[in-house]
Amino acid sequence: MIKEIQAKKVLTFHPDAFPTHWDLNPYRGCTIGCKYCFAQYSHKYLGLDDFFKDILVKTNVSERLEKELSQKKWSCAQIKIGGTTDLYQHLEKKYELLPKIYAVIKRHKNPVFIQTKSTLILRDFEILKELSEITSVDIATSITTFDESIRKIIEPGASPTIERLEMLAIFKGISRSTTLGFMPIIPLISDTDENLETVFRLAKAYGIDNVVTSILFLRGDVKTKFLSLIKLHFPDLYSDFAKLYATSTADAAYAQQISVKIKKLREKYQVFGVYKPVETNVRTVQLSLF
Length: 290
Ligand code: SF4
Fold this sequence. Notes:
The chain has helices at residues 61-69, 91-95, 97-108, 125-132, 148-154, 161-172, 193-205, 220-233, 238-244, 252-269, and strands at residues 2-5, 11-13, 22-24, 27-28, 55-58, 79-81, 112-115, 137-143, 177-185, 210-215. It is α/β, with parallel strands linked by helices and 290 residues long.
């Protein structure tokens, strides 16, 4: 189900979020369909069942954003676009909400952090180039595996992994920073030495500024569904995988082992994970802003 809605408010404050506290999501739900997506739970608060198929489209997002950024109290804080759902999911081809959002951002010279798993962002390259000439534009993507047969099972609607990296490299020339999330690292599936090495080798070759990593986190319904997926597509791994996930996080010894490997790769390729958010110096952001 695709439903067009008129949003009452489009900027959301998350006190503990990193790298920015402010989120803008033009869509609710996400057709990219990553099987590990932990935002799936958020749909139940909207009374919707299927995060990957029941999509809300905020057709008035740019008008609302204009109003919220025009508030005297707005701090000009860095905004993350697409923190809960991917801003360049397939529906963006039809709705073209992003160019209108960028026009508002440009008028207000507001810094942005944009994260997507879709190369559809390249459609807006020229607009983002212009935007980056007047404010900070940070671009990020995340990847899991270079094995496309596995990628199609785990992240069916995302662009191929190598294309996401190439996209990030294209933005390197214009954005303040480029960040690659190697996340989630999926135990027994995307944690081969070859995959780990390829991530860091290519990040270095493409000149990516930051590589951040995290191991798969599974809780609630997502854990149940992900375990079913492992059973179906990787039956030989199921038993060991389930043992690693007695809780929502991977076994501590396993996590330590991965951490050692990543440390070595960081040293070998001199690729680190230090992302510095844009600092807001106008005033302290207050939760009660709107
Ligand atoms: S792209 Fe992001 S929001 Fe969309 S399904 Fe994947 S993890 Fe979830």
